[in-house]
Design brief:
Number of strands: 12
Shape: elongated
Largest sheet: 5 strands, mixed
Helix content: 25-40%
Number of helices: 15
Order of helices and strands: HHHHHHEEEHEHEHHHEEEEEEEHHHH
Low-confidence stretches: 378-390
Mean pLDDT: 83
Length: 450
């Protein structure tokens, strides 16, 4: 008997033995006085068994016929043995005209052993994978989001590169986000220091893996295209357990690295990125293991600096208009109308948006000179009038003027890449020499040297 039935039995016994009144028992049991009288009568006639519901142990009046149950289970065994309850219910309804509820079928399949609920399934066992044989054969990469500076700076992301064969930290870099530009900067640092590994091993983050099946791409992300151009394999893991080594390294870093930066008085991303090589050397001295074979499979980086600048860029194709212009990220680019460039009308050019914020336009193997008209910047009417080729651009800006005024905050295109890494690079360059970023602000001194 459950607690409710024990309470009912105790109250009815007290009524029969005249210890409490029927009205008191009715209040205790939340029943009417007449129902309490019925229970008293049953108790006097049949004892405690009279207080149990009379339908207990008997089949429900609307119970589904056993023949229907046997037919359903027989059909599932014969035709749908690997179907789940939902799909099996659809097929029984559509193809066999059997009308039962989904939950009823689910319980039948569970009782018959045809379906095991997810909560009762045994956890999947992941066997440990042996390390690779050589340094540089497989390098695991991951981004670890954490409060690395313990509130001294905003939360940020640490990009981790760890060798699978040795457990060595190959590169670390702090960034505000886990974007394609951040991975481009960190990967170029890695390649310039160590060379090209055989493969990078990552999760299915959008930077590495195209998740949309209908995406208008060649199934390569911008970062995947960079590695493809450099002849480096990119492997995406199917589960987080498959990346156990980099996950364990992240936990170690979230403990040790945080405390080391606290002791060193490091409070910003810029300070941390300068100091990280010292931490990497100390970490590898303590935790790195020798590889099974001493061979280093890193390949030398043979690309020139200019070639690397083009490879490590966000690349998009654009078609030139009749006036040799195209639009990218709400900016109109105007190709210089030289004799050589006049033949490029309606041709497709490649735009290179580099991590440092610079832009290049390429046609074949030739770089094209260009000028920029930013639709989000203030329109200088004088300059527009001076250049007839900008007339169409001015007309476009005027038609969009009302739309711009309604926008309290003007932003770049949401389809364009995140530019956090670019903004950081520009800030660092401005700190060195502002003229490098804004050369038009430079004014030569008229003073003569003594």
């Amino acid at each position: 008997m459950n607690d409710k039935e024990i309470l009912r039995l105790s109250a009815i016994r007290d009524v029969c033995e005249h210890r409490i009144r029927r009205s008191d028992a009715a209040r205790i049991l939340s029943l009417s006085v007449r129902q309490v009288q019925r229970l008293v009568t049953r108790f006097r006639e049949s004892g405690a068994a009279g207080l149990v519901h009379q339908r207990r142990g008997k089949p429900s009046s609307n119970k589904i016929n056993d023949s229907v149950r046997y037919r359903c289970l027989s059909l599932i065994n014969q035709k749908y043995p690997d179907f789940g309850p939902t799909l099996a219910h659809e097929k029984l309804t559509e193809r066999h005209d059997i009308s039962i509820s989904l939950e009823t079928l689910r319980q039948w399949m569970i009782a018959d052993g045809l379906w095991v609920p997810h909560a009762k399934r045994k956890p999947r066992v992941y066997q440990p994978r042996h390390r690779r044989d050589c340094l540089g054969e497989l390098v695991q990469i991951d981004g670890s989001h954490h409060d690395w500076f313990e509130g001294r700076s905003p939360k940020c992301c640490l990009l981790v590169y760890i060798d699978d064969a040795t457990g060595r930290l190959m590169n670390l870099r702090f960034s505000e986000t886990e974007s394609a530009f951040d991975y481009m900067v960190a990967t170029r640092e890695y390649l310039e220091q160590h060379g090209k590994p055989t493969a990078f091993y990552s999760d299915r983050h959008a930077v590495f893996h195209v998740s949309k099946r209908d995406a208008h791409t060649e199934r390569l992300t911008q970062f995947g295209r960079v590695l493809n151009d450099l002849n480096i394999e990119l492997i995406c893991a199917n589960s987080s357990q498959a990346k156990g080594r980099v996950e364990r390294a992240n936990k170690t870093l979230q403990d040790r690295l945080v405390k080391e930066m606290r002791l060193q008085g490091i409070d910003t991303i810029e300070q941390a990125n300068v100091w990280l090589p010292d931490f990497i050397a100390d970490f590898n001295r303590r935790f790195a293991k020798p590889p099974r074979f001493p061979k280093d499979t890193h390949r030398p980086l043979r690309e020139t600096t200019d070639e690397l600048n083009d490879i490590f860029a966000w690349q998009e194709l654009r078609k030139l208009s009749k006036s040799l212009t195209f639009q990218y990220d709400k900016v109109v680019y105007l190709i210089d109308p030289t004799e050589e460039n006049k033949g490029l009308v309606n041709q497709v050019v490649k735009l290179l948006d580099r991590p440092d914020g610079t832009i290049a336009i390429q046609y074949g193997h030739r770089k094209l000179a260009f000028r920029v008209f930013d639709k989000l910047a203030d329109v200088d009417q004088g300059k527009v009038v001076d250049n007839k080729r900008l007339g169409a651009v001015l007309k476009f800006a005027q038609t969009k003027q009302q739309e711009f005024e309604q926008q309290q905050k003007r932003t770049r295109s949401k389809k364009a890449p995140k530019r956090t890494a670019q903004k950081r690079a520009i800030r660092q360059l401005e700190a060195i020499n502002p003229v490098l970023i804004h050369p038009e602000q430079f004014k030569a001194s008229s003073r003569r040297k003594p």
